[in-house]
């Protein structure tokens, strides 16, 4: 005796959020039943294991049927097959596009290609996220990437409108797309301590300040206004201009002047002042060199590793506190304005504004 | 040429990719009606084509308009090869044919393909212009409204109820035509879908004609069914109740008035009365008043004359019609005997009865498919009448003609009619018909509730007299009148224990009442109701033709008997005394028969309290006493728990008063009875049945123990849940807005080849119980909630497969309010009734004893019904074999059909006059818990209307303002890639979801936002896993309506609707 067929269909589609999460997390039906049993659902309504199994299967089937719609969430709202209340639709979409930080950390900056997809089982083993869930998340990244790639206009807004995601999630996806597009290196050992949220923050900074579509950018040709990928690619012109900053380290006078201005401002305000004074030139060279090299795609990829190697690590070995770091970078940036021979204030602010906030974010254990 | 149909194809969306190379589709549309076809332009390379076509115009007869669906086919244009079909949409334009309903059909329809399911959507606008029909011999019946709802629809008032209409059409099943061997499955499925659509249209038109002929303008309780007979054809048949309905001016009338009140009916309607009934208007009006004073009234049932005598000829005629398959080919000749029996009885009855009787007798079938009635319509209810007949389909002489089937149903209906008459009733209410087909064997079943109706509703002019209200209220107070026995207690059609009504103390009531109707809204109940099911499997040998048919018809009575016993036991176990909405389904398979009886149990305060259940060994010491006493204890505990659970605690006020009129109950430790017992034994038995006597179960072998265990298996619903299979949940009326309709299908494969009946029963019972458990679990977020209208359908699709299909609706209610209500009502009424009751103690005493004797002596004539009569005092739990032998003898003489009345008596006085509760019927819509479910959500300019569905005739907190017409849709889905679609479950799951989606889309296109009285009539599932194939046929129906939230409406119109608006703020009415 066996149950050959068992279905339950509601006019309003019934979906249990807990089961949905288990499905998204890639649990098999049997594992999901186990988890639910441990969770104590059985006590409600005197359910038995069979009841739970049947319910879980029904829900899994429903989710599978919905999955196609979730791939283009806009369809969910005007499809006729499932009658789902709007707030539920939002929940379904938001959860479907949610991802594990540990997983995304592994693929961040990698090409969203078939090759990467093949490595997903390794990532699954490493992160403990089930392969099924890894695939879903990876496919989501890829799908969002593909769609926004062809769209004009602001990246975050495009993602939000097209996938009906919350602002937060849309921003995270923007970061993922941005990283994937520019292939930033994030996997090196030295970067391991950084979380996805650290990178997402940095990506947000880069997107809103260094790309063509960046706000307040006046130097752009008006015809550029709605170019493709305006949020995804860094502003080439800006990158060129960054080369001009080299003067801050190549001009001996300027470098000394800059150092003395900074040191004057910092003296007595921090315990690590001596170390700051000693390493000023090195640190400054580090930051400016990073800026100057950004015209090379290869060096763009290494942006974060460079920041860590050239700046964060030396500071950390000198035991700067986060407050020290803040103090230093603020004065470092501001002092440059006082240098009368330094003409590239706009580019400098645009560069340092982002670098400063990135380093603040990245300066932790 | 009286009609012009216009259609415009606007756009498509979400189309499938038909051209792999471009990942796009070059779609165009064919619009076909009758033999005329139009085409749109091709919209190249788009998955969201905009056609914006011209108006395609079809000039057609209105006859065709009624029969034909508009057929829209979406195709992919292909330059070099044949165009590929994407899918189709069939639009039934019937709703456009009556003036009040929809004026335009416009909206997005799912494009459906029988192989691929839904493939995108298409936006269509359809209009109809009707010209005046000049032809007086017309064949069309445009304008007759159809309702699936089995009560008078909200926002209408019935000025006249004309009665039964039926029709049946037959055609060759395309699946069995020779051409099917060479055409594709898709073509075959589409031919079938189209044919059934055509046949349904034709059927509806023909029924409409009959209604017009009777002078009516609507069919209520329209029930249409398909019989897939296989080789011999495809039958579409329908029954309904013809009425003349008046639309209440919108908004102004409170819902309660929807149920017509005789005195409010306008005089102008007199002329509408059907020609058939108009003949005897004379004194009907006066008679009821004459029965007002207690004495004449009592004379009614006691007069020695009344029930139709059981002339020897009668049982025979009954037998010939139902039981004997072998004879099924000879048309029944004995019809006259049934009829004459009634006539003989006629003159002997009181005038009142005579009058109504004659009025009704003039109709061929005084049947009503309605299950709930306007207050005052039902005078008395006799009990359930049912008839079954086994037929051989391969013996139909002229399979393409309806005559044979017509004759079959005619026979069954005659039998039902005669059963009703035997119960002293002149009408059958809550009437329904069904079939079960396996290979060439077909079981036809019909059942209903014998009743006496208020004659005023039956004849011309009666409705106009406004002053009569109090005349009726006197003899039968609304809260208990329907329980009073309609038959003569001296000549009871079956042995029953009668007592004086615990409510009014004036008339006799049975101890138990079984009916197929809904609980009348004015009935007084204690506590809450609950779903009661009896389930049964019987193995049979595989056989062919007549042998098979005989085997089946031999098994039927046993099954009925056992189902009945189970129901009875379970009813007692729940401490209840009445069943409503009883539906017994017997389904036939190659090697087994399945029986499933569902009903809603309730405690009627007018009937006596049920005694307990007492366990007894066959002979003392047979089984260890310990064992028996432990079972007894379990049973007692269960009863106590159930009383608590269903809050059955009627006040004991009347106890003393009751004591005197009823003969001292003889307490016997044990009752013994077998069916072969002689009549004096039986009489002894009946006498022994004092009111306090327990219902006795005997244990004499292991089977009996099993049976008792299985009795106790039924788990009560978890806290916060109630369940019923009727429209109204007894004891709950304060619905809140949560509504969730669902369909669930489960198929079980029996792997074990040598199963016993017992084992099979267990499996079947578990299957049903587990389904219920699943529902409770899934719907737990709706607690406190009630599963209403639980409709179970069983089938044996193949050998070793059992299929159970359930459709129901879960509705949330407000716990607090319920309790208040129950608490306050009983008291005052109780004391009032107690006084009245004291007036007739003596009479009662005499009557009840004499009636018992009467019954006993009559036993030979009615043995067949005795055996299964609900009040059978003790049920023999002897082995099956024993029962068989004793039974067979009786059966040879008696019919297989079973008639049940229910009768009896008890104390109990208070009425929880839940008449207020009847307001439940007010309101509609609300799906799921979320009130945020707004009617539409827009994206990219499109929106989807939220369409609520319910099998009930109402939605809580919401008021129906317009009926748009019936939805009657038939779909076939087939797959040749079963595994890829997620196996059988995946396949059926998506199909059911698709069916829902198509129903919703059609309703939305009519401008509606809800479907009431929704039901899934048919769900035939066939699979062939080895070939990776499966096929499923689904037929659904319901009434499309527009409804608005009660709260909204109150602001606009001054409705005194109490409505438990419970936050109905939902649903955007269109």
UniProtKB/TrEMBL annotation, chain A:
Gene Ontology annotations for the cellular component aspect, listed alphabetically: nucleus
Pfam family, one: FIBP
Listed GO MF terms: fibroblast growth factor binding
Biological process terms in GO annotation: platelet aggregation
InterPro entries xref list: FIBP
Superkingdom field: Eukaryota
Protein name (Swiss-Prot/TrEMBL): Fibroblast growth factor (acidic) intracellular binding protein a
Organism annotation: Oreochromis niloticus (Nile tilapia)
């Amino acid at each position: 005796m066996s149950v050959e067929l068992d279905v339950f269909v509601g006019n309003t589609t019934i979906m249990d959020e807990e089961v949905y999460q288990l499905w998204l997390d890639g649990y098999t039906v049997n594992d999901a039943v186990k988890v639910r049993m441990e969770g104590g659902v059985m006590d409600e309504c005197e359910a038995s294991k069979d009841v739970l199994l049947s319910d879980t299967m029904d829900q899994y089937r429903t989710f599978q049927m919905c999955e196609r719609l979730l791939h283009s969430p806009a369809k969910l709202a005007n499809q006729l097959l499932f009658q789902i209340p709007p707030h539920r639709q939002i929940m379904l979409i938001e959860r479907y596009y949610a991802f594990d930080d540990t997983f995304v950390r592994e693929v961040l900056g990698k090409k969203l290609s078939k090759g990467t997809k093949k490595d997903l089982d390794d990532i699954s083993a490493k992160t403990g996220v089930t392969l099924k869930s890894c695939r879903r998340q990876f496919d989501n990244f890829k799908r969002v990437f593909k769609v926004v790639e062809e769209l004009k206009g602001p990246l975050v807004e495009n993602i939000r409108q097209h996938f009906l995601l919350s602002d937060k999630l849309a921003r995270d996806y923007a970061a993922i797309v941005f990283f994937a597009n520019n292939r930033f290196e994030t996997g090196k050992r030295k970067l391991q301590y950084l979380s996805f949220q650290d990178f997402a923050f940095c990506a947000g900074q880069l997107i809103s300040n260094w790309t063509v579509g960046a706000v307040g950018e006046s130097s752009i040709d008006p015809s550029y206004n709605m170019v493709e990928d305006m949020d995804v690619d860094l502003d080439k012109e800006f990158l060129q201009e960054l080369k001009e900053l080299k003067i801050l380290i190549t001009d001996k006078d300027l470098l000394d002047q800059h150092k003395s201005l900074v040191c004057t401002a910092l003296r007595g305000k921090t315990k690590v002042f001596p170390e700051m004074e000693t390493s000023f030139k090195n640190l400054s060279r580090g930051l400016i060199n990073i800026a100057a090299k950004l015209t090379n795609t290869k060096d763009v990829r290494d942006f974060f590793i460079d920041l860590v190697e050239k700046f964060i690590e030396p500071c950390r070995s000198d035991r700067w506190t986060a407050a020290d770091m803040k103090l230093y970078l603020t004065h470092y940036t501001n002092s440059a304005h006082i240098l009368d021979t330094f003409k590239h204030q706009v580019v400098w602010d645009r560069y340092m504004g982002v670098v400063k906030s990135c380093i603040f974010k990245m300066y932790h254990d | 040429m009286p009609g012009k149909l216009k259609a415009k194809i606007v756009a498509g969306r979400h189309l499938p990719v038909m051209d792999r190379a471009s990942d796009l589709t070059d779609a165009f549309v064919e619009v076909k009606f009758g033999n005329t076809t139009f085409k749109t332009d091709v919209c190249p390379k788009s998955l969201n084509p905009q056609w914006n076509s011209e108006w395609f115009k079809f000039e057609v007869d209105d006859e065709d308009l009624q029969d034909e669906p508009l057929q829209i086919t979406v195709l992919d244009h292909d330059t070099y090869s044949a165009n590929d079909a994407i899918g189709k949409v069939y639009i039934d334009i019937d709703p456009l044919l009556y003036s009040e309903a929809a004026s335009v059909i416009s909206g997005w329809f799912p494009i459906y393909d029988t192989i691929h399911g839904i493939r995108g959507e298409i936006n269509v606008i359809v209009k109809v212009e009707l010209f005046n029909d000049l032809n007086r011999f017309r064949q069309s019946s445009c304008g007759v409204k159809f309702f699936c709802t089995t009560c008078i629809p909200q926002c209408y008032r019935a000025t006249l109820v004309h009665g039964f209409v039926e029709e049946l059409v037959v055609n060759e099943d395309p699946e069995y035509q020779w051409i099917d061997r060479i055409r594709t499955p898709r073509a075959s499925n589409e031919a079938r879908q189209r044919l059934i659509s055509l046949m349904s249209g034709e059927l509806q038109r023909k029924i409409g004609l009959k209604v017009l002929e009777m002078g009516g303008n609507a069919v209520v309780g329209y029930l249409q069914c398909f019989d897939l007979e296989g080789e011999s054809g495809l039958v579409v048949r329908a029954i309904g109740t013809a009425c003349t309905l008046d639309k209440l001016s919108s908004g102004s009338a409170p819902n309660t008035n929807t149920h017509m009140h005789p005195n409010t009916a306008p005089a102008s309607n007199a002329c509408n009365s059907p020609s058939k009934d108009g003949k005897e208007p004379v004194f009907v009006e006066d008679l009821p008043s004459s029965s007002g004073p207690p004495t004449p009234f009592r004379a009614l049932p006691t007069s020695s004359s009344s029930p139709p005598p059981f002339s020897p000829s009668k049982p025979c005629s009954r037998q010939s019609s139902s039981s004997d398959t072998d004879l099924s080919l000879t048309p029944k000749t004995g019809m006259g005997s049934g009829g004459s029996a009634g006539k003989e009885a006629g003159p002997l009855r009181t005038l009142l009865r005579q009058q109504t009787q004659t009025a009704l007798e003039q109709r061929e079938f005084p049947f009503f498919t309605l299950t709930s009635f306007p207050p005052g319509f039902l005078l008395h209810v006799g009990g359930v009448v049912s008839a079954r007949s086994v037929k051989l389909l391969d013996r139909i002489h002229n399979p393409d003609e309806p005559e044979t089937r017509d004759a079959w149903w005619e026979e069954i209906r005659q039998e039902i009619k005669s059963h009703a008459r035997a119960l002293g009733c002149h009408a059958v209410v809550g009437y329904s018909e069904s079939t079960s087909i396996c290979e060439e064997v077909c079981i036809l079943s019909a059942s209903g509730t014998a009743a006496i109706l208020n004659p005023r509703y039956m004849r011309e002019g009666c409705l106009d007299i406004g002053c009569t209200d109090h005349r009726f209220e006197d003899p039968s107070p609304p809260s208990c009148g329907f329980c009073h026995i309609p038959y003569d207690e001296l000549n009871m059609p079956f042995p029953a224990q009668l007592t004086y009504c615990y409510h009014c103390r004036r008339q006799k009531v049975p101890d138990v009442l079984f009916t197929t109707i809904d609980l009348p809204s004015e009935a007084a109940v204690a506590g809450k109701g609950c779903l009661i099911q009896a389930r049964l499997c019987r193995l049979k040998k595989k056989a062919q033709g007549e042998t098979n048919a005989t085997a089946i018809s031999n098994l039927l009575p046993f099954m009925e008997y056992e189902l009945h016993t189970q129901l009875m036991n379970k009813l007692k176990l729940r401490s209840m005394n009445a069943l409503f909405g009883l539906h017994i389904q017997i389904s036939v398979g190659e090697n087994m028969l399945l029986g499933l009886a569902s009903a809603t149990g309730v405690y009627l305060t007018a009937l006596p309290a049920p005694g307990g259940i007492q366990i007894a060994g066959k002979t003392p010491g047979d089984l260890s006493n310990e064992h028996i006493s432990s079972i007894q204890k379990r049973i007692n505990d269960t009863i106590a728990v159930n009383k608590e659970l269903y809050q059955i605690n009627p006040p004991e006020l009347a106890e003393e008063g009751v004591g005197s009129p009823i003969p001292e109950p003889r307490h016997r430790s044990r009752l013994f009875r077998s069916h072969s017992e002689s009549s004096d034994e039986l009489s002894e038995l009946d006498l022994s049945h004092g009111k306090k006597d327990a219902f006795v179960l005997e244990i004499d072998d292991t089977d009996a123990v099993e049976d008792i265990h299985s009795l106790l298996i039924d788990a009560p619903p978890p806290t916060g849940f109630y369940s019923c299979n009727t429209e109204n949940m007894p004891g709950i009326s304060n619905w809140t807005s949560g509504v969730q309709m669902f369909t669930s299908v489960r198929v079980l494969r029996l792997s074990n080849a040598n199963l016993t009946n017992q084992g099979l029963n267990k499996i079947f019972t578990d299957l049903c119980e587990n389904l219920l458990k699943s529902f409770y679990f899934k719907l737990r977020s709706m607690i406190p909630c009630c599963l209403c209208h639980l409709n179970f359908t069983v089938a044996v699709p193949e050998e070793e497969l059992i299929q159970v299909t359930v459709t129901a609706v879960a509705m949330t209610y407000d716990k607090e309010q319920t309790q208040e209500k129950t608490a306050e009502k009983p008291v005052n009424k109780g004391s009032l009734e107690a006084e009245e009751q004291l007036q007739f103690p003596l009479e009662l005493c005499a009557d009840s004893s004499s009636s018992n004797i009467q019954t006993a002596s009559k036993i030979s004539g009615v043995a067949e019904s005795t055996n299964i009569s609900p009040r059978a005092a003790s049920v023999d739990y002897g082995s099956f074999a024993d029962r068989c032998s004793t039974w067979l003898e009786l059966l040879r003489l008696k019919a297989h059909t079973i008639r049940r009345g229910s009768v009896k008596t008890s104390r109990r006085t208070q009425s929880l006059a839940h008449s207020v509760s009847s307001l439940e019927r007010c309101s509609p819509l609300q799906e799921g818990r979320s009130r945020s479910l707004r009617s539409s959500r827009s994206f990219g300019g499109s929106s989807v209307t939220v369409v609520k569905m319910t099998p009930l005739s109402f939605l809580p907190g919401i008021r129906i303002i317009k009926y748009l017409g019936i939805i009657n849709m038939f779909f076939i889905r087939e797959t040749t890639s079963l595994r890829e679609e997620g196996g059988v479950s995946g396949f059926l799951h998506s199909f059911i979801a698709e069916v829902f989606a198509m129903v919703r889309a059609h309703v939305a296109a009519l401008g509606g936002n809800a479907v009431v009285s929704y039901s899934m009539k048919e769900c035939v599932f066939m699979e062939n896993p080895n070939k990776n194939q499966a096929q499923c046929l689904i037929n659904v129906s319901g009434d499309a309506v527009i409804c608005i939230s009660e709260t909204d409406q109150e602001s606009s119109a001054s409705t005194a609707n109490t409505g438990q608006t419970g936050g109905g703020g939902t649903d955007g009415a269109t």
